[in-house]
Structures are given as C-alpha cells and as structure tokens.
User: Fold this.
Amino acid sequence: MGSPPDTSKTTKLERYNSYLRRMSSAKLLAASSKVLFRATLLATVLLIILLTLHYPFSLSYISIFSYSSPSPHRSLLSSFSDSFGPAWDRDVRRSATPRRDAGLSVLVTGAAGFVGSHCSLALKKRGDGVVGLDNFNSYYDPALKRSRQALLTRHAILIVEGDINDSSLLTRLFATYPFTHVLQLAAQAGVRYAAKNPHSYVASNVAGLVSLFEVAAKSADPQPAIVWASSSSVYGLNEKSPFSESDPTDHPASLYAATKKAGEAIAHTYNHIYGLSFTALRFFTVYGPMGRPDMAYFFFTKAILAGKPITVFRIPGGKDVARDFTYIDDVVKGCLGALDTAEKSTGTPGGGPKTGPAQLRVYNLGNTTPVPVVKLVSILEKLLGVRAKKNVVTMPSNGDVPFTHANIRLAARDFGYQPTTDLSTGLQKFVKWYVHYYGIKLKAEAGGGQMAAA
Assistant:
C-alpha cells in the first residue's frame, strides 16, 4: 500500500492566498471609508453654506423639538438643534435688552402666531426687550407665520425656532438673559381640530406648559412673572351671561377647553409650591389683520371672494350663534396691561421654598358685546361687495358653544382694560389687510359704492 500524498505545501499556499485576499479587502474597505467620509464632510460643508445664505439668522439660533407636524425644511435643520454659541448668546441679549428705563424683558412664546406677533411688536415699539420663540408648526399655513416673523425681524426682534417642550432650549434662554416676564402664548388652538389630532393639544397645552413652568421655577434666576393665554372656552356649557371669572368652569365642551382648564389648575399648583407669579388671560374670539386662517371671519372671507358656500350655524330652536368678537389691538392692550401689573415671583431659584404668597390672577379679555355670526357675515358682504352663499344648519355637538359674552370688570379695574373697536371697524381693517396680503383687487360695484373681487 503506497504512502499518502503530502498536502502540507498545498495547505500553506491556500492559507497564504486567503491572507492576501483578506488584506486586499481590508485595504479596499479602508479606501472606501475615506472616500465616503470626505464626500460626507464636503456635503455637510456645502449644506451649511447654503443654509447660512438662505436664513437671516445664524444656524446657532435653531433648536427643534416639536410634537406637531414639522415645517417643510425642518428635517434639514434638526442636526443643528444643539448648536449654541457666542453669536447666539449675543443676539439673544441684544434682542432681550430694554431700550427704556425700567423696561421689561419678555420671552414671548408663540411669537410668530397671531396674538404673539402683535404683542411682540407692541412691546418692542415702547422700548421693552423681546425675544420670541415659535415652532412654526403646520396647523395652519406656516407661510403666514414666516411673514409675521419677517415683520418682527425688521423691528429687530429675534425669533428662536424651537418648542416649549424643549427644556434644554428654555434653560439656555434663561441662562443667557434674566427675563423679567414670560408671555406664554404658544398653544394648540382650535376647537374642532381636536377630533383629528387630540394628542397635539395635550402635548402643547399641558405637557408644554409644564415644561415651561418647570424651567421658570427651577432654572431661571430670577424667576419671571408669567402671563399666559387661557381661553373663554373654559366656561364651556355655562348658561349665565355675561361670563365672569368667578363662574364655575367644571363643564368644558371640548378637549381644547379641557386643556386650558387643566392649564389653569397647573398654574395654581406651581404658584402654590414654587411661588411663580401667574396671570391667566381668557381671550374671547380674537380677530383682526394677520389673523388665524382657521377662524370663521377669515375663512368666510376667503370663501365669499371665491364664490364658495359658507356654513352658518344656528342653535337648536332657531337662535343665532353669537360671539364676543374682540379686536386684536384691544387684546394687545390687555396683555401689556397684565404684564405691567404682574408682581414678581416669590420662589427661590432652583425650586426652593417661596418667601411668601405669589400673585395669582385670572382675567377676561373680551369686547362685552356678543354679535350674531349672521351679522358678521352681513358686514363682510358689504365690505367685499359680494353676497355670500350661505348654508344655515343646526350646530352639531362638536365642542362649539352657542354664545360667549365677557364681563371685563376685573381687567378694567386692575389695569384699565377697555375695548374700543366695534366689529364693523375691526373687520374693515382686517379686509384691508387681507386683500393686500393675498394680492386681491376689489372693484366698485355699479351704483352701490361697494367693492367686489375683480
């Protein structure tokens, strides 16, 4: 029987060839990684350059954390959410520093919103320091919010893009400048939208409020006085008229109203435990130029000009739905009056014990004169020169209430709140802004002196 063949040399050769193949693969992988790294670095640099050219403020301003739907470009910016630096600090301080003696320094949340933008402008024009915060969500057209932002920018008001749920951003803002006041207007608005996106109301109106109060109580030094937007919706199914601040608010008719009611209870808790100074303002159907497209007067105007039908609700039994429509300039005066009379918080920065009871107030900001919605439509018809196509239906059980009517005695007594703009005058100013903003030309009707869409 012969000897077995010697395979040692063959085995060694195969091991050597395998080694060479592994080395080649490793070198190829390393080379590929270097190419990929360089390509990624180049793309990042180009992206930074493009964004720097496109946005009026440096990228270090941007911090993103939102429970709401993002704006179209938000995904491009999210990687810069923690970019703070000397330029960001400098611009926050510049915008927050008052230009008048004893001026306020106010952090306005929801600053690109309807009420927020008007209040920010009013504060800045009288010499107060203002920094805005807004997440630019897409509840309604973000382009309108960007237009408001551009207006604020022209008046040297910095708007930080971020969310009140972002505690790290809030902490950094308070560390950068000792704000004396917060005007908390950031919220998820709208009664009917709650049926589509209920979680957004809890995220913004409850969780967001807690986030802000936590930072104000435990991180801000000094603790700011807080004025914030509640709503006339908290009166819910109350049948007493007019609505007074002492009326029960235990029967909200919508999730939106319930979150605002919860906010008032949360504010009471932080006032009691941490000595934060709070003023809640219950707004009554605010309207005017640069308003919210989801409000009836706004989308009625759009539909009437487009020749489309509008739905007008009536209460079961045939009565008209009525609202205490309040013009934006009157509401702004109320907000500034509340800020001016807000007392300092009494808590210890860091969340320590309070030195004494802190101010806790609630006020109605309304116009005191409920107007049927059918009259609002009639006024718009005259201003636009177009007859509305109306579908009159019974109000469904979707959270809306049949009427609102504000008793403003307390606000008048404590900071001189007194509305001066009637609905006809206010709508005339709104329509003038609307046709200008959307580039609509109105023409005079023959013989009537009214105006119609061209």
User: Anything to note?
Assistant: Residues 8-54 form the longest helix (47 residues). The first strand starts at residue 105 and ends at 109. The chain is about 45% helix and 15% strand. Confidence is low (pLDDT under 50) at residues 1-5, 44-82, 445-450.
